[in-house]
Amino acid sequence: MSAPVIMTVENGIAVIEINNPPVNALSQAVRSGLIECVREADADGAVDAIVIYGAGRTFIAGADIKEFGKPPQEPHLPPLISEMEAVSTPTVAALHGTALGGGLETALGSHYRIALASARFGLPEVKLGLLPGAGGTQRLPRVIPVAKAADMITSGAMIGAKEALDLGLIDEIAEGDDIRAAGIAFAQDLVKAGKGPRPTNARPCNPVTSDEMAAIRAKVTKAARGLMAPVSCITALEAAVSMPFEDGLKRERELFMELMQTDQRSAMIHVFFAERKVGKIAEIEGVAPRDISQVGVIGGGTMGSGIATSALLAGLEVILAERDDAAAARALETVGKNLSGAVKRGKLSQAKYDAIMADQFRTTLDYADFSNADLVIEAVFESMEVKQDVFGKLDAICKPGAILASNTSYLNINDIAAMTKRPQDVVGLHFFSPAHVMKLLEVVVADKTAPDVVASGFALGKRMGKIAVRSGVCDGFIGNRIMNAYAKAINGTVLAGASPYDVDRAMENFGLAMGLFSVADLAGLDIGWANRKRMAPNRDPRERYAEFADKICELGRYGRKTGRGFYVYEEGKRGGTPDPEVLEVIAQERAAKGIQPTEMSDQDIIDRYMAAMINEAARIVGEGIAQRPLDVDITLLNGYGFPRWRGGPMQYADTVGLEKVLNDIKTYQKEDDYFWQPAPLLEQLVAEGKTFSSLNG
Ligand code: 3HC
């Protein structure tokens, strides 16, 4: 293996190349190579300036995340950067690709920075439950305004080269695309101009008033909602503002090490790797996806229009089929509205919008127009008969090799595929509403789905900017099956003593944006009610069915759209208010069933909610519906609002301990022996002393 850091000296310029593919992360070998080269160059009397750049697609993408959680190895990054900053030879960081985290901190420790126009810069440590721990919180506010530094550090968002230049983060945008040559030319100009080192730590921190700083803290703390890293970022920035550089650096290090020990950090790093692993499945390794350029969408309701929008934004040509002219016109309008939303948010130019609406998108009343489509996604009414009819028709019309996909949320894809003579081309593509916004895509693989169709589902997800997760076939697939389980547990929790308002408060404090009952009110209670009525004949008589949600619907309370659901909604007010009428309905059911309500703390509620989620997820993994626990985590995080900093239900289970979860389930079993049956996989892992993460591969 070649050295990850090499240096050449050309005409008085020492050029240090970092070559640690894929993203030049600052592994121990890179750190030691870098500091040795800098020392050697600084000691070399023939060297007038030093240039540091990254080989391949990018400058340095940060510390090597794989080393986190292991014993730290010298040389450590903070003293390395300080030593680099102190050299007497002017140092230039020549940046391309993404200079992130420790990479940007290395650049800030260099004396000058130039970049290609395409380069981007950021301190994304906060997204890993950390703060920039190699001087980023101390040096950045010495270079750019404090408020902007706070924004970059607490959001982790990247900025482009133009903004970086305007802010003074970089000195120059280089022309062309040869960063090495640009770095050398810049260094030669420095030497010619007689410019020496310009250490960032010698600059004062940019001015900020204590009122401004207090306002920044208040805003960040409010938005953090239980997340520690953003608040610690502000504490580190306050140190930059109020302390000498060296003291601030020490404070930053302490805060970094504190965060390093937290479950939040482990959870967020788990998510980082899980999101990259979720698409790596044996079935599609080395399998080329089919070419997709024209997509048919059937159904122009909220879901179909969202799917069409997503496909259009991904650059695909879309034909949307509706039943009649009026429905087609409504679909056209909805897609147009979705796309203008993208224009408003700056995600799409007006010119691109016009081009999409003129050339990329049309509606039809005739499935015959799908004869040339590479993929057809149906998003029609959730009924097996209706879907089977659609697939029979598609089979007759679509060209050989076209992928036929169903967006069903619950139905059996095998039964749908059976209506065609090409079950190998049939797959479930389960989008989440609103489909042009939500990140999750479940790729539901039926018994006969061909591997290149699965690969195409993943490729489509990537092209649409989504995170695709593989699911096997079962009622509700990974996500909705788990949601049904925890919804039942929550209903049981309400009968046992909690109010819907207690549940929502507990869930929101746990980190969800909204509690289950607020979400239900928003979605419309009648939808779930209709579903429950449909399922009623199949209900097992042993199930302890909670009736209060049906009773509330019987009162005409369908949620927000009727002004009353679990909450009462007043015109002009954002949230709902609790309603004694709802509590009375619940109290009556408890009385009828002879249930003595007990006091429930937020933790009691969360324990039940999580136990149900984890137990069902363990079944799903045990049955092979999800191949790995990480597939469950990614599903819940991207489709169901599970807080990212808790890492997903399986990571959460590992954190609290599987034994505790199993014990909780056994306790609840005494109350309801039908629902609370421990999943065999959970029992097995507890018996073997293993974690879910041990199954992630
Ligand atoms: N350390 C180790 N591996 C990393 C890494 C890092 N910092 N960044 C990316 N990788 C790995 C990925 O896991 C992936 O590995 P795989 O091929 O085995 O799955 C590979 O590099 C390519 O990454 P992506 O698939 O994400 O490639 P993209 O081109 O989509 O994105 C990127 C590239 C924008 C650099 C993205 O990988 C990214 O955001 N990386 C993380 C950056 C980051 O968080 N840096 C801060 C680290 S913490 C730090 O620096 C602490 C310091 O303050 C002390």
From TrEMBL:
Residues 294-470 form the 3-hydroxyacyl-CoA dehydrogenase NAD binding domain. It is found in: Peroxisome. Residues 476-569, 605-690 form the 3-hydroxyacyl-CoA dehydrogenase C-terminal domain. It comes from the Bacteria. The keyword Cell wall biogenesis/degradation does not apply. InterPro entries: 3-OHacyl-CoA_DH_NAD-bd, 3HC_DH_C, 6-PGluconate_DH-like_C_sf, ClpP/crotonase-like_dom_sf, Enoyl-CoA_hyd/isom_CS, Enoyl-CoA_hydra/iso, NAD(P)-bd_dom_sf. It catalyses: a (3S)-3-hydroxyacyl-CoA + NAD(+) = a 3-oxoacyl-CoA + NADH + H(+). Pathway: Lipid metabolism; fatty acid beta-oxidation. Coiled coil: none annotated. Keywords: Fatty acid metabolism, Isomerase, Lipid degradation, Lipid metabolism, Lyase, Multifunctional enzyme, NAD, Oxidoreductase, Peroxisome. CDD domains: crotonase-like. One of its GO terms (biological process) is fatty acid beta-oxidation. GO terms for molecular function: (3S)-3-hydroxyacyl-CoA dehydrogenase (NAD+) activity; enoyl-CoA hydratase activity; isomerase activity; NAD+ binding. Its main location: other. SUPFAM superfamilies: 6-phosphogluconate dehydrogenase C-terminal domain-like (SSF48179), ClpP/crotonase (SSF52096), NAD(P)-binding Rossmann-fold domains (SSF51735). In the N-terminal section; belongs to the enoyl-CoA hydratase/isomerase family. Belongs to the enoyl-CoA hydratase/isomerase family. Monomer. This is 3-hydroxyacyl-CoA dehydrogenase. It comes from Shimia litoralis.
